[in-house]
Amino acid sequence: MDNPISNNIFAQAEKDPGFWLEDFRLEFMEELAREMKHLNISRTELAKRIGVSPAYITKILRGDSNFTLQSMVKLAFALGSKLCIRMEPIDQGICEWKVLAADVPGPQETTLSYRGHKIEQPGTWGSLPVKTRESKLSKPLSGGEGNEPGIKHDLTEIAS
Amino acid sequence: MRVFIHPVPPDSKYRIFSLPDATGEDSLSAFFEEQCSKNALMRQKAYAITALLKRLASGLIRHDKEVVREIKLKKSDPGPKIFELKRNPLRVLFFYQPEGLIVCTNGCYKDSPKTPQECIAAAVSRRDAYLGGLSERSLEYVVVEVKQDG
What we know:
The structure holds two protein chains of two kinds.
Chain A: H1 9-13, H2 17-39, H3 43-50, H4 54-62, H5 69-78, E1 97-99, E2 155-157
Antiparallel strand pairs in A: 1-2
Helix pairs in contact in A: 3-4
Chain B: E1 2-6, E2 15-18, H1 27-38, H2 40-58, E3 68-70, E4 82-87, E5 90-97, E6 101-109, H3 117-136, E7 140-143
Helix pairs in contact in B: 1-2
């Protein structure tokens, strides 16, 4: 199996505050959409409440708008909510995977480095800032939508 | 065919795979790097679509036409549905696979209301190649490395 050659786009993006700006924008727009659905409030109704056009609400829900703190508070208030801000450490947990090619005799493994730290012993995390979790792939993946029944992804996760 | 695995946070609901482009390289990384290299605005848009993809993996994104839209394919198309992740003017096309897999086929820059047909055609052809490789057991999985600084 080839060595990893490409770049992890998530790890690269997370190094830049611009990524976290977008992440925050997404969080706000998802929260807004969820609350609108929960309260059964349409875009037109919300637009009316804060005195803007429905197109503006659509723009916000699409993530295309550069909203200010003032407009965020206004939108939340119009839904009977207040805006809460909290800071939390950036989650640095990225999983390590062991990949087994299906038809290669004897398992061939590719082990992931985590942000430049080579993980020497598969299955151990050492001091790496990685969370562990129950493996969702303790059994091979089987067929489903778009697959022939019985075809398996031979992919096994190290983390358990 | 190589399938590229983009590691995601451990608590993610889905895992992200991406398929090779015409040169055999990881289409997702190539798309991301291409947009980032254009200018500051496109870099920001690339971050936006990456953040969206990460949230899609977490299962925290609503599936509606503003964010995730199903691509209309021919009725005779037998494969899994293809969706596009939207963040103007960028798109990432993908399809779901069983057991929590999101397989990204390609990304595209879109400057008209409709997603370019060639982008959709590439997505369908890569999806079919992936499914073919799956049935022939000829897929080779490559974990996408994290580049070291400097």
